[in-house]
Specification:
The chain contains 13 helices and 16 strands. By secondary structure, the chain is α+β, with helices and mostly antiparallel strands. The protein has three domains: 158 residues, no CATH class; 51 residues, no CATH class; 198 residues, no CATH class.
Length: 530
């Protein structure tokens, strides 16, 4: 018979065959049954060799091998012995102590055994409590004797056969086991595993293998934001929104607030760009003030130029409000400063373009009075009107539904972004939409005035600057929506800085070049030439 398909298995024997002589003595099964651990009925040495002279000079019980002389295997016999012993004690108590014992009579009177009733014997049997000659306590507990078993192990002998070795005992609920005495089927002192797969550690969950027994499974790590803090977990539990799983996926820890700060590399770069833009705008403002009496400054509406430089400076500075930890007032001020600064800037460009168009239209016959409607007072009033409308929109937005600092818990990860949540998308859309409307109007007017003499007007410069401005803010919308966390704030700051630099360099760089490096062209004659 071939037994290879059941080798390398650790068998646990039931009481029915844990002491089977047929298996123990069969050499064919020793390959499989080596290391078997079983539960056997308690045994005891009932038969002892008496110290009497032998029947003859040649006999010896030590050489006799049969079931009757193998006292180590008298397991059922020992139970019968205990049963008879218990019945004897119950009868003795019933007959000699339970009936007709007169008070004061020291010698008990034993009754006739003919009058014994089974119910009486059972009552006395439940109260039996004695110690066997082998020193073992015997008693009944809840109408039954406490469980008493031997733990046996089938071990190889030097001769190659199997022998039964007691490695422990079970006394009721007490287990006494000598692990060092066990001979495992693997011929190793390491306890063999009893399952197909090792228990899944904390941080993982069990996933059954298709077509295999339930004890065969894979340990799948818990997903981000989920934990399992017990061994052999069937499921991973999701952490609350304010918490996230640790690296080992064994505990939920509080999430860290993250925002665009002045200390990180991105914040430092954006701050440097904003401060540099403010300094360059201030330098251009100083140049224009110093050369305010020259034809280049005066011919291009110096009052609107100064106001435009001031608005550009505000645009650069308002970007700094977006950096740092969001607060209630920071969230309100940053959007209002951004919206009003850019409307003021675009309004100046629009009025400048209207003035250029009006100046050349007034040169035609019958249009002398056109410029009267675009004097300095009308120009300042137009800028104030355009800006006031944006102020009104921002006031209504911030009064009814202002942005508030809020942690973006929907984005997975240990770090949660603290940002200014736009409570009203309509308000933010109106602010951006009004800026876009003025920018498109300015672009259209500048495009109409692009063919006017280059030396006098700046229509082409405004056209090019507004093209850059519109391109930046058109690209801003999808980039802002798709950027996660604090990078959405960085995208908005970048759009502010890019459009501000575009306006600054496109409009004022050519003028500063002529004022500082080509003063020979800073003459009325050159500016009036066609």
């Amino acid at each position: 018979m071939e037994y290879k398909w059941v080798t390398d298995k650790q068998f646990v024997a039931s009481e029915a065959w844990s002491t089977s002589d047929d298996l123990l003595k069969d050499p064919a099964t020793s390959v499989v049954t080596r290391g078997v651990i079983g539960v056997a009925i308690r045994t005891d040495s009932l038969l002892r060799k008496a110290s009497q002279p032998p029947c003859s000079g040649t006999e010896s019980l030590e050489g006799v091998q049969n079931h009757f002389t193998d006292t180590s295997q008298l397991r059922v016999t020992y139970n019968v012995y205990l049963a008879v012993y218990a019945a004897a004690h119950a009868l003795h108590t019933l007959l000699c102590h339970g009936r007709d014992s007169s008070p004061g009579n020291n010698s008990p009177t034993c009754s006739s055994p003919k009058n014994i009733k089974s119910i009486e014997l059972l009552q006395h049997l439940n109260n039996v409590n004695f110690t066997t000659p082998q020193g073992e306590m015997f008693y009944f507990q809840d109408d039954d004797t406490p469980a008493k078993y031997d733990l046996v192990n089938w071990q190889n002998t030097p001769e190659g056969s199997l022998t039964l070795v007691v490695i422990g005992r079970v006394d009721g609920f007490d287990l006494h086991l000598n692990e060092s005495a066990i001979q495992w089927s693997t011929k190793s002192s390491q306890v063999p595993t009893s399952v197909c797969s090792e228990s899944c550690p904390p941080g993982t969950r069990k996933a059954s293998r298709k077509g295999e027994p339930l004890c065969c499974f894979d340990c799948i790590p818990c997903a981000d934001g989920e934990i399992s803090n017990q061994t052999g977990s069937l499921h991973c539990e999701r952490c609350p929104l304010e918490f996230w799983s640790n690296a080992k996926r064994t505990a939920c820890i509080p999430r860290h607030l993250d925002f665009l700060s002045f200390n990180e590399t991105l914040g430092i770069a954006l701050t440097t760009a904003a401060v540099s833009g403010t300094m360059v705008t201030t330098a251009v403002f100083v140049v224009f003030v110093y050369y305010r009496q020259t034809p280049m400054v005066r011919a291009n509406n110096s009052e609107l130029s100064f106001l435009l430089l001031l608005s550009l400076k505000l645009c650069f500075m308002c970007s700094l409000v977006f950096i740092g930890r969001p607060s209630v007032w920071a969230c309100r001020f940053q959007q209002a400063a951004f919206g009003i600064s850019f409307v003021l800037c675009v309004s100046c460009l629009q009025v400048k373009t209207i003035v250029v168009l009006a100046a050349f239209r007034s040169a035609r016959p019958g249009a002398e009075t056109l410029m009267k409607w675009f004097g300095p007072g009308q120009q300042r009033g137009s800028v104030c009107l355009f800006s006031f409308l944006q102020v009104f929109i921002c006031f209504m937005w911030l009064t009814l539904s202002p942005p508030v600092p809020q942690a973006d818990l929907d984005i997975p990860g240990l770090k949660v972004t603290l940002k200014c949540a736009t409570a009203s998308v309509v308000g933010f859309s109106l602010v951006l939409g009004y800026i876009g409307l003025l920018a498109c109007t300015s672009l259209l007017l500048a495009f109409l005035a692009r063919k006017l003499p280059d030396n006098f007007n700046e229509a082409k410069l405004i056209t090019f600057s507004m093209l850059i401005f519109c391109a930046v803010w058109i690209a801003f919308v999808p980039a802002y929506v798709s950027s996660p966390g604090k990078y959405a704030v960085a995208v908005e700051i970048f759009a502010i800085l890019a459009s501000s630099y575009g306006l600054l360099f496109c409009i004022f760089a050519p003028k500063c070049f002529i004022i500082l490096l080509r003063p020979d062209k800073n003459t009325r004659k050159h500016l009036m030439a066609r």
